Amino acid sequence: DKGNHRHFMLKEIYEQPIVVAQTLKSYVRRLDDQVSLPTPDFDLSAIRRVTIVACGTSYYAGMVAKYWFEQFARVPVDIDVASEFRYRQPVMEDGGLALFISQSGETADTLAALRHARSEGQKIAVVVNVPTSTMAREADLLLPTHAGPEIGVASTKAFTCQLAVLAALAANLARAKGRLDPREEKEVVRHLSEAPAAINGALAYDEAIEAMAHLIAPARDVLYLGRGTDYPLALEGALKLKEISYIHAEGYAAGEMKHGPIALIDENVPVIVIAPSGPLFDKTVSNMQEVQARGGKVVLISDYDGIQAAGDGCMATITMPKVHPLIAPIVYAIPVQLLAYHVAVLKGTDVDQPRNLAKSVTVE
Ligand code: F6R
């Protein structure tokens, strides 16, 4: 049932404040300001290395997690898409945790990668949205997302719920490694708990984004740029746009533009820049200005401070609530999803059932 929404995808985008809050309930305790895992008997402190494997949008959630695990827990992380991981003979040493992320829990490549990692002696952690799925059954450490059934083929609420679980896992790992003192843990809990309200704040820009979609819909190619945890978000934005609007889109690390892709820039290629104000903001803005100097039309997604500092000269801006960098990827996922959605609606595509795609990819 789509409720009063035109598509399942839009309904699922709007469910995010509730389902992220629901998911966080299992992983953060406001009462004593602690992060927690549903299966606490797992010895995280012994983990020496994490290998993350997933496909598509779930893989991009994993990319964000790599930044978090390394930054907070100082644990080395390897990450790959499942279809490559399976066949490249990856080196997995003792004491490794292999982490698989999947909405469905049935994706063939991810499942095969899981079984391979087990045969190589890795502990198996699974972030999955379907608790009865094959991957859920095969996990040593099951970390469910509580997004509820996701019907739209394009993943939305599962992604933000995955990020919520992964942030909590990063904090758990950091604590187990002695790298998160109670005061820092309290801060993490506070920031994560702010995510649902911030997502609500982001949803308030739906109409503005709908109006802006008219600027993107005529394009043949669109680029997305971001740095740090906003880089995977740029990749996710491009994937969302491709799969439901059929517009060609690519995501790049903002700093990579000058190594090739900037040659694509002209007034016909809109560039979506994802840049919350923070430590990497100035760097991203200077990449954005390089694009503008070559006639590129920029849409800047930032907060009020960011738009004030760098919004002049942009084709359009989207103002997000000001949030802590930890939850920025969760909150900035919303405008990225809404933009793809509204462009697809303008293009008249079958938003919930895009051509050539299946919700669950159970063949290799
Ligand atoms: C994109 C999308 C796909 C899935 C991918 C993995 O919107 O939905 O890229 O993310 O097929 O699926 P799961 O997460 O079920 O393993």
Report on the architecture of this protein.
The structure is a single chain. The protein is an alpha/beta fold. Helices cover 45% and strands 17% of the residues. It has helices at 8-14, 16-25, 56-73, 82-85, 108-119, 134-137, 157-176, 182-193, 195-203, 206-216, 230-245, 281-293, 304-310, 328-347, and strands at residues 28-29, 34-35, 49-54, 77-81, 96-102, 123-128, 141-144, 221-226, 248-253, 270-274, 297-303, 316-320. The longest helix is centred in the middle third of the chain and has 20 residues, at 157-176. The model has no long low-confidence stretch (mean pLDDT 95).
What is the H-and-E element order? HHEEEHEHEHEHEHHHHEHEEHEHEH
Q: Estimate what percentage of residues fall within beta strands.
A: 15-25%
Oligomer: single chain
| Radius of gyration using CA atoms only | 20 Å
Secondary structure class reads alpha/beta
Shape: globular
Global mean pLDDT: 95
Low-confidence stretches: none
Helix content range of the residues, please? 40-55%
